[in-house]
Amino acid sequence: MKYGARNEITATVKKIKKGSVMCQVDMSDIVANSMCSVMTLDSINEMDIKEGDKVKVIVKAVSVLIIKE
Questions:
Q1: Among residues 2, 4, 30, 25, which one has the least CA distance to residue 15?
Q2: What mean pLDDT is predicted for residues 48-63?
């Protein structure tokens, strides 16, 4: 997968807080000790992200994107 951001961090999904449409994904094991991303429930289900998964965190401006390889 190609993307335009240069800041890539490997992290572990610590907790997923699900709402009716959006969810908050908390990650750990990273330089900043913890980060958070907000994404739609459709996206998290499509990517099959679960607590304990290893993911890549892409940071660009105010967006924090998660990639699962």
A1: 25
A2: 82
